[in-house]
Amino acid sequence: MSFDYQKYQSAFGNAGVGNHQFLVLFAIFLAVCAIMYVAVILFLVGGLLRRRRAGEANVVESGRHLRSDPLMRTGLIAWGAVVGIGLVALAIASFITDRLDAQAAAQPKLTITVTGNQWWWDVQYNASDPSKTLRTANEIHVPLGIPTRIILRSNDVIHSFWVPSLAGKEDLIPGRETDITIVPQRAVIFRGQCAEFCGVQHAHMALVVDVDPYPEFVNWWQRELRPAAAPTNPLVLAGYRVATQRQCASCHTIAGTPAGGNVGPDLTHFASRRSIAAGMMPMSEGNLYGWVADPQSIKPGTKMPTIGLEPDELHAVVAYLETLK
Amino acid sequence: MTPYDPRADEQRLARERKKIVRDGPDLTGARLATRLERAWNRPPGLLGWLATVDHKEIGRRYIVTALIFLALGGALALVMRLQLARPDQDLVGAARFNELFTMHGSTMMFLFAVPVMEGVAVYLIPLMLGTRSTAFPRLNAFSYYMYLFGGLMLWGAFVLNVGPDIGWFAYTPLSGPQFSPGKRADVWAQMITFTEISALAAAVVLVATILKCRAPGMTLARMPLYAWAMLVVAVMIIFSMPAVALASSMLISDRLVGTNFFNAWEHGDNLLWQHLFWFFGHPEVYIIFLPATGFVSVIVETFCRRPVFAYPVVVLALISTGILAFGLWVHHMFATGLPRVGYSFYTAASMTVAIPTGLQIFCWLATMWDGRPRLQVPMLYVIGFIVTFVIGGLSGVIIASVPLDLELHDTYFIVAHFHYVLIGGAVFPLLGALTYWFPKITGRMMDDTLGKIGFWMIFLGFQLAFFPMHFAGLLGMPRRVYTYPAGLGLELPNLLSTIGAFVVGASVVLFVVNALWSYFRGVPAPDNPWGASSLEWAVSSPPPVYNFQHIPVVESRTPLWDEPDELPVVTGLRVDEKEMLMTTVVAAAPDLREPVPLPSLWPLISAIATGVLFISSIFSPWAVAVGAIPAAIALTAWFWPKELKRHPEPVLS
Q1: How far apart are the first and last CA of chain B?
Q2: Dihedrals phi, psi of B405, to nearest 5 degrees
Q3: pLDDT for A212-237, tens place per residue?
Q4: What is the pTM of this model?
């Protein structure tokens, strides 16, 4: 299951209301444009073949050349009319689709705040009861068929939130608040990616969207609300100490432990996520070793420093992180 | 100082009047040519070369420099395509890749596309309009030097590893002081300053030349369509460049003195940058495209052996495109969360621009239908242009729609779209135009066989490189990523694009080989090798330094077709000094005889002083104050009034 999300980053995914409207409208535009294109090419080929057969290659039209074929004049007016009508029709179709999108997004049942950072996504689930508020990163769980409003903010530069199979994109702009509403229609795991150039690691700012049936979504939320698992064996305990007492804690939060940094992704349920480093690598022990040992050589420029852990510290931290389910 | 004596002054003027030599029935042919050459030739040697104000020399330098930048920008594109040929590659790192696409975009837009169009115009427009020089020839020289220095600064910085890495659009706050420390973003912003000054200067030169220097009788309604296109373009430059000048100055002051225009944490606004940038950036696309439509109109006319169908419609299409281009910029910002009703307006406006373009295409096709098309190399490029550009135009209609653009924005679909528009719409006609005017510029024909091979290579290679990008975008590939993961289905389109890009690269090399070979060994060209209708083909190939021995009189839109034996001329311009004829704006009735400036080093010195000011202001705000002094001195010397005495004769006719 861990790699599945890699297959679903296509605008042909047809898995959300927004993307579905896109595909319908795209088909309409494509059909109209194809007809126009064929008309142009036929006219071009016709024009090239018509007089070449006459063989009088170098003769210039005589007189003051202001005479033009009446057929062509009528054609020009007709062409202008056809182009105009076609464009008006397409504009109306586009307008209607835009309103349908707006309607589908009108009554969201769930609100998530996604904050862009160089180069990861901070995710917060808002609830009227503060104890139910939830923070995670780089992986979003949304309920199937329920309009979910995603509020978009940025902590640094402009990013763009884009999960092609579900809906179009929307920018995350510092100093502004934007939003996009998604209505997922298939319970699959999707990949999304930052679509606005945001610096060195723009290419590695992906996210995972897990669409679950509503009951499963509620269960997931409940699980995520729990604090991090307590260490159960000496190796994990050693890892817990490294994670809470070394540099890690100054950036990362692990709920239920002294680690309460606010700069990097929340790690409370890190091991239950599907990817490491904002969708860059699937979650696996090997990838985790590489990432913790030397993030700068895997994702050069990332804000996570290479801190030079001793081998036994590395073993311990990885063992601890793997318990954070 | 002797006191002013009106009688002595009259006598002096009478003596001087007697010495004046004019062209006319008594002075014509070889004797006239010698006199004109003596007046118009610039001093020999390096200093003379640097001081030249001859529009043909400046135009040639513009074209050659721009083509060198095209080659450099293209080489960067090939490196990027190698990096993207396969998934998860690390041939060039992320940071270097960002520099590559920034340099590629900035070079192609600011150092190739706009300057090459200006350069061709600076070369051709005076010849096409039947005059001896551009208006403001020294400003023209200044424009070229500013462009050259801007380009050298950008590429020098790139070679020294301080090249910009913020994208050609330099969105804030990524380009601001907080997220781009160092000097990379400043280099980009100052390159903008150089090129915008250069473009504005060239635009002023072109507007004045087209409106005031046309041959007598060449009313606005008889002007070649290429001149119309350049008139619209030059006016567009004058209206659009100030927006980016403002934006880049604000960015520089944010970075240099901490003004916080774009700092959201201090109540600056990042969308302000986008509005200003795209208010320039969208018209920029038409500034590149409309000159190409001018090339197409000229080539279609010559190779179909009849004037372009519905001239007034083409002119009105050019003008309306030029106006509409300023009402579309928000379609670059559909994903920024502006009000939806506003978006609907920009959707409609963006689609509207397809109407004038569609009408122009109809007019060209109708000209082919009604004429006798000859499939020589320039005409092949026009056909390639129509087949390719229309795809780009139609994909432009697709992304004008908000719901469609929200999926396609900032993906490879957009990369495909604008390369179809810019390469298909501007580079193909440009290559056709270079082939077409090569004999006029160099005196030799380009090789036909190599030209045809080159056309088919670039045409097919282009489709292979850019058509798959539509699919890459739809399959979820964003722009400006240095790599992409395996498994998303992006492997095949990217591999095809890379192969196609190298075919395009080879075809450009072939074009250069053909141009060089033809320059030295090509068949010598007659005055009018293609049997064309416009005035530049009335002079020898290459044209003499003074362009026309006698200024022609124009009585139709196609003078050389209507007066195949000898053009009617006006005479009476001075030939002992550089002088040109000014005509009225609309009717082109003779208006003034205007002395033409002599070669001068001051434009070069002013450009150097201004360049030093710009480059040193990257490092210190004080450079603006200190550097203004030499620039002011140079400009004062340049504009120092030279003739305080009365002119020997009234210049009003």
Answers
A1: 33
A2: -65, -30
A3: 999 999 999 999 999 998 998 999 99
A4: 0.95
Q: Does residue B134 lie within any of the structural domains?
A: yes
Per CB-CB distance under 8 Å, the chain A contacts of B307 are 61, 65-66
* Cα B57 from Cα B59, distance rounded (Å): 5
Provide the residue range defining the domain that includes B493: 47-521
CATH code matching the domain that covers A1-48+73-212, chosen among 2.60.40.420, 2.60.40.1080, 3.40.50.720, 2.60.40.1120: 2.60.40.420
Distance CA A92, CA B569 (A): 56
Residues 262-281 of B with CB under 8 A from A: 264-265, 267-271
% residues pLDDT > 70 (chain B): 98
ipTM of the complex: 0.95
Q: Confirm whether B540 is domain-assigned.
A: no
Query: Which positions ≥6 away from B509 have C-beta within 8 Å?
Result: none
- Whether residue B547 lies inside any domain: the answer is no
Query: Does residue B16 form part of some domain?
Result: no
Statement: residue A320 has pLDDT above 90: yes
- CATH no., domain A234-322: 2.60.40.420
Chain A CA closest to residue B169: A197
Give the model's confidence band at A178: pLDDT under 50 very low, under 70 low, under 90 confident, else very high.
Answer: very high
Q: pLDDT band for position A7 (50/70/90)?
A: low
- Chain A 32-91, residues with CB within 8 Å of chain B CB atoms: 33, 36-37, 40-41, 43-44, 46-48, 50-52, 54, 56-61, 64-66, 68-69, 72-73, 75-76, 79-80, 83-84, 87, 90-91
Answer yes or no: are the C-beta atoms of B561 and A60 closer than 8 Å: yes
A18 to chain B: nearest residue by CA? B403
Residue A148 Rama label (left phi>0; alpha psi -120 to 50; beta)? beta
Confirm if A17 and A167 have CB atoms less than 8 A apart.
yes
Whether A57 shows a pLDDT value over 80: the answer reads no
Asked if residue B413 lies in contact with residue B466, where contact means CB atoms within 8 angstroms, the answer is no
CB A171 within 8 A of CB A196: yes
Is the CB of B390 inside 8 Å of chain A's CB atoms? yes
Tokens describing residue B240: 């659009």
Tens of pLDDT, residues A268-306: 999 999 999 999 999 999 999 999 999 999 999 999 999
**Closest by Cβ to B398, choosing from A11, A33, A95:** A33
Residue of B nearest to A174 (CA): B264
CA-nearest of B176, B385, B374, B146 to B272 is B176
Q: Residue written as tokens 């763009």?
A: A160
Q: Which two tokens stand for residue B386?
A: 């129509």
Collect all residues of chain A within an 8 Å Cβ-Cβ radius of residue B171.
Answer: 157-158, 196-197
- CB spacing of B309 vs A101 below 8 angstroms: no
The residues with which A143 forms a beta bridge, in sequence order, are: A212
pLDDT, one tens digit per residue, over B460-489 is 999 999 999 999 999 999 999 999 999 899
Tell me where in chain A the CATH 2.60.40.420 domain(s) lie. 1-48+73-212, 234-322
**Are A160 and B335 within 8 A, CB to CB?**
yes
Three-state secondary-structure class, residue A299: coil
Q: Per the structure, how many domains does chain B have?
A: 1
- Within 8 A of A170 by CB-CB distance, chain B residues are 335, 337, 406
Smallest Cα distance from A98 to chain B, Å: 6
CATH code for position B241: 1.20.210.10
Of A10, A64, A69, the CB nearest to B370: A69
Give the angle A156-A161-A162 at the CA atoms, nearest 5°. Answer: 150
Find the residue in A nearest to B168 (Cα).
A197
B307 part of contact set with chain A, CB < 8 Å: yes
CA distance B532 to B226: 14
Which residues share a beta bridge with A171?
A: A160
